[in-house]
Amino acid sequence: MPRKSAESKYRKLPTYEDSQDSDDDIMSAVRSQQEMLTHQDESLDVLGQSAARLGMISLEISDELQAQNKMLDEMGEDLDQADINLEIVTRKTKELIKKSGGCKYFSIIVVLSLVVAILFFLIVYT
């Protein structure tokens, strides 16, 4: 029994053939790592191209948003001007109604205009 434990303490020295297998394993591992690095480089290139495209798209979106904001601002200014013009016309119309006798004469004119329109339709369709 003491002899077995003594043998188990020492390992066997590699022979030339074992050394050859070990070199082949190392070369295989190196090739595998190189292939992995090549694959990672290709993946990083694709990722870089995708990031560049996303950057270009985001710049185009930004330009489009700026153009639309400019159009909205211009439309807002046009609406403000139209509102001012409408207020002026409304004020002048109210002044004209006051000068022409107020709502009394205006309502008489509207009623008489409706009577004329009804009579016109009766004449045409009978």
UniProtKB/TrEMBL annotation:
Q: Which residues form the T-SNARE coiled-coil homology domain?
A: 34-96
The annotated region (Disordered) lies at 1-24
Q: Which GO cellular component terms, listed alphabetically, does the Swiss-Prot or TrEMBL entry include?
A: cytoplasm; endomembrane system; membrane
Query: Which parts form a coiled-coil structure per UniProt?
Result: 65-92
Subcellular location per UniProt equals: Membrane
Q: Where is the composition biased (Basic and acidic residues)?
A: 1-10
Which membrane topology describes this protein?
Answer: Single-pass membrane protein
* TM annotation in the entry: 105-125
Q: What's in the keyword line of the UniProt record?
A: Coiled coil, Membrane, Transmembrane, Transmembrane helix, Transport
What main location does UniProt list?
membrane
Q: What InterPro entries is this protein classified in?
A: T_SNARE_dom (IPR000727)
CDD domains membership: SNARE_Qc
Q: Which PROSITE patterns match?
A: T_SNARE
Full protein name = t-SNARE coiled-coil homology domain-containing protein
